[in-house]
Amino acid sequence: MRRDYIDPDYRPKTTDLVCEFHIEPAQGIGFEEVSTHMAGESSIDSWTEISTLSPELAEKLKPHVYYLDEASKTVRVAYSEELFELGSVPQVLSAVAGNIFSMKIVENLRLQDIAFPASMLREFKGPNFGLEGIRKLSGISDRPLVGTIVKPKVGLSSEQHAEVAYKAFSGGCDLVKDDENLTDQKFNSFEKRAELSLKRAAKAEAETGEKKFYLCNITAPTCEEMLRRLGILKELGASYAMIDLVPTGWTALQTLRTAAEDAGLALHAHRCMHSAFTRNPNHGLSMLVVAKLCRLIGLDQLHIGTVVGKMHGEKAEVLAIRSECVLENVPAIEEQHVLEQAWGGLKPLFPVASGGLAPTMIPELYRIFGKDVIMQFGGGIHAHPQGTKAGACACRQALEASLEGIELKEYAKGRKELGAALKKWG
Ligand code: CAP
Ligand code: MG
Predict the structure, then answer these.
(1) Which of 115, 138, 319, 324 is deepest in the core (most CB within 10 A)?
(2) Is the pTM higher than 0.85?
(3) Residue 3 pLDDT grade (very low, low, confident, very high; cuts 50, 70, 90)
(4) DSSP conformation class of 105
């Protein structure tokens, strides 16, 4: 007989880490059976009762499956904080998002949310800049920030890349970033691109009187190389570094967080590859969990979805992710599988909406996200009929119209950039 961890009378302690799972048992396995074994496998158990685990130790460390609802396939488990290395995201994931996905008794399993106890929050720094810090840095307090991704994703030389960045800055972009798959290729080396693009950012800053940020992608094969690239950005006077958070991994992010603070750089996190494990609603882990881990670790900006653009993500889900980025106290939302979370003073991070956006979507984006969002347009700027500069200008015009509550069609009168964008994207 293996242990039974089902305990509906248990009330999670403030020191417990609580997880909500969606569980579908394999054929012939009962819901309670799979729930209790999953809780055991993610904490102290093996597949059979082990003599090395004394009853006293088991009692002290056992998980509590305190909520089970077979109809909604939902289970909540409270784990003692003693099971965890409190400041290690990799260790926490090895436990509550580790072996359990491989169990034969599980047909589908999804980690919907993790509610972190205060003891764990204290072990993490959270964002160094965060939403408010970025606002201070940019001097922009009253509107969304506008950014672009240099396109094509890869293929331009460093000089061409810097020129596109300059046009985007001149047209009105606050931020210009690399694409996720641009790192240090033969045609466009990291060092040269960083140097030239930062120079062009400074030129545009002087010419426009607005702050201009270039976000160079430091994603690299090792942490050492990533830190070296971070050092180069610091030397060149950058304000930001960008990282592909999933391909580089949690250890890289935790390493980078400290180094970025020492270097005085803000961190922009691109979430490419997240959908490999977040997209299936029945299996994997949620983007909400990814976002919470990013805030915990302390990234300053994170892609969260757009609702209206080219990437998947329903409005309710995207807004729940947004809440985890910006609120101090997140209330539970049963139907979104969101657990209550108090953030213990960890700073909010700046949410980024990106992916398939055009200037004509700005009024809708503003309605959905309000002013605390960074709107990023790749194709939506570089495919503008009059070019990149006009594309960036059209975005700023559409944003001005949205802030003033004026219809785009009306605002486009006498503004040829917005007019052309409306013609193209309606
Ligand atoms: C957007 C983008 C970003 C996506 C990522 C792209 O370009 O550069 O990587 O926003 O998606 O490569 O698709 P476009 P998400 O504006 O031309 O689509 O933000 O959902 O992680
Ligand atoms: Mg991209």
Answers:
(1) 324
(2) yes
(3) confident
(4) T
176-194: average pLDDT: 98
Q: Give yes or no for residue 317 CB within 6 A of ligand 1.
A: no
Q: Is residue 2 pLDDT above 90, yes or no?
A: no
Q: What are the tokens at 227?
A: 């830190």
DSSP lists the bridge partners of residue 267 as: 241
pLDDT at 410: 98
Q: Out of 3.30.70.150, 2.10.50.10, 3.30.450.20, 1.10.760.10, which CATH number does the structure's domain 16-121 have?
A: 3.30.70.150
Q: How far is the CA of 272 from the centre of ligand 1 (A)?
A: 8
Architecture of the domain whose range is 130-425: Alpha-Beta Barrel (3.20)
Pocket test for ligand 1, best of 317, 318, 354 (most atoms within 8 A of CB): 354
Residues 6+ apart with CB under 8 A from 264: 234, 239
Query: Is 199 labeled as catalytic in the residue annotation?
Result: no
**19 Cα: distance to centroid of ligand 2 (angstroms):** 31
* pLDDT of 74 higher than 80: yes
The verdict on whether 153 is a catalytic residue reads: no
Choose one of 149, 272, 275, 350 to mutate for the ligand 1 pocket test, by most ligand atoms within 8 angstroms of C-beta.
149
Ligand 1 in reach of 310 Cβ (< 6 A): yes
What pLDDT is attached to residue 270?
Answer: 98
Can you tell me which atom of ligand 1 is nearest the CA of 274? 21
Residue 286: which region, alpha, beta or left (left: phi > 0; alpha: psi -120 to 50)? Answer: beta
Domain chopping of the chain, boundaries: 16-121, 130-425
E strands present in 131-238: 145-149, 175-177, 213-215
Lowest mean pLDDT among 2-6, 9-13, 65-69: 2-6
Give the Å distance between the CA of 349 and the centre of ligand 1.
Answer: 19
- Degrees (nearest 5) of the Cα angle 180, 102, 120? 65
